[in-house]
Amino acid sequence: MARLPRRLPFRSPTVRATAALSLTQLIGWGSTFWLPAVTGPAIAGELGMALPMVMAGPTLMLVVMAIASWPLSAVFERHGARPVMVLGSPLGAIGLATMGLAHGPASYCLAWVILGLAGAGMLSTPAQIAVTEIAGEKARQALGVLILAGGLTSTIVWPLTGVLQAQWGWRAAILIYAALMLFVCTPLHWAALARRPRGKPAAETAAGPVAIDRPRFALLAMSFAANGFVTWGFALTIIILFETSGIAHAGALMAASFIGIAQWAGRMIDVLGSRRHLGIVTALAAAALFPLSFVILLLTGDLAGAMLFALLYGIAGGITAVARATLPLQVFPARAYARAAAQLAVPLNLSFAAAPPVFAAILTAAGPHAALWLAFAISIFAFASLFGLFLLHRREERALQDAALPNADRT
Fold first, then answer.
1. Architecture of domain 12-197
2. pLDDT digit string (tens) for 137-149?
3. Whole-number Å distance between alpha carbons of 264 and 259
4. pTM of the entire structure?
């Protein structure tokens, strides 16, 4: 009888944490931000609210997440992600229960405020911090897997939400998600995450926090927030843009659907290439693809052009999604990752929240080409910011190498 290996992959703390967080992030994002895409019309009809007001719930959630992220940065750095996420999960369940029992606009909006506070403690940034705490040197690969799994959220949760709503109504569907948040996410966060961040002794806090280089922080925040503004702004308007370019509705739907496949492929490219390429190089290449994709869409008006746009735009978006989580590991000291990631979440969530209404207003007032030109200009700004960070990073690396040469000669 063949003997089993002494250390099976699923016994690795990093594998357990990444698998657990992949599930809790799927439940967390699927039951909050992506929820109104399916339940929105039913909620609007029963609560007597306009559909745009119902769809503004996720925007309110992102704004609250942005406000709460900065104060939480010190908590993550001092105590780690586990206690925050363990508290965030039941708070998310309370928010979903409030929504499931809502009887008007006030209680509906209150639910999204609670979900914003919960999201700051359990969605994306806290999960990424938790992975880095437990994965150590393998953090970039683990983060890539986590982001890769997150790309399947809408694909899995939208059909599930539709089935639950069709069987028992939107209130029951939301209350079921509240139960999953409480009885699945909370125990997983408690059991799978690190009690103490790897390599962080109890006496480390006496040395004080590691400084975050502000020029690097500003360049990274500007680049990611700018590209995030474009991608989240186009999320709800891309089909309209295709159709106004002269593409039939069926073709527009096909091209828009292909973006999701290309995004997943982009995430896979970054994950598979993480050991061979610097994260900042792949992020810079992705940032260059964004303006190129907009030029293609501006110059063409047929299905072939839309599909080529979808390919380049989707790959760029997929790589950038991974880079948002992994690049701070390369840019900032490892000990400062938790604080830097939490503080970066502030401009990111604000840009994500503002993008859909801004792009919808531009489309209504000035037309689709104005939205495309705006996206092109913003993507150029994002590339320039990231390129400035790349030059700064290279200059400092060369300075460190030059400083080490005399010491090497003396030895």
1. Up-down Bundle (1.20)
2. 778 888 888 888 8
3. 9
4. 0.83
